[in-house]
Amino acid sequence: MRTHKKLTVGIGTTIAALLLAGPAQASTAADDQYSAVLGEQGGGTVQGESGGLPFTGLDLLLVGGVGTALTAGGVLIRRIARVPNSG
Asked: How far is C-alpha 46 from the geometric centre of its chain's CA atoms?
């Protein structure tokens, strides 16, 4: 019974993480701001700043949450699949 519950939680976590991964790659206003024609370089820095990284608009909390959920799901699946010693 306990293994069945762990398996259900692991599968549910994995499915939830995969469903949440789609919106993390959705187009944002920042994507449109820095888009460029093929073969041309887009202006990725704010005017007046030099040497800085461009703002991409990527939600790092969402990406971190998805990564954490996938890692937790993988650890849970490994624990479920572990065969107990019979000796």
From this structure: 27
Residue where the block lists tokens 């306990």: 2
The domain spans of the chain are 1-24+58-82
> Contact 20/87 with Cβ under 8 angstroms?
no
Cα angle for residues 24, 28, 30 (degrees, 5° grid): 120
Cβ neighbours around 51 below 10 Å, total: 5
Give pTM, 2 decimals.
0.36
Contact 66, 24 (CB under 8 A): yes
Condensed to tens digits (0 to 9), the pLDDT of residues 20-49 reads 776 656 555 555 555 555 555 555 545 555
Q: State the Cα–Cα distance between residues 10 and 76, nearest whole angstrom.
A: 6
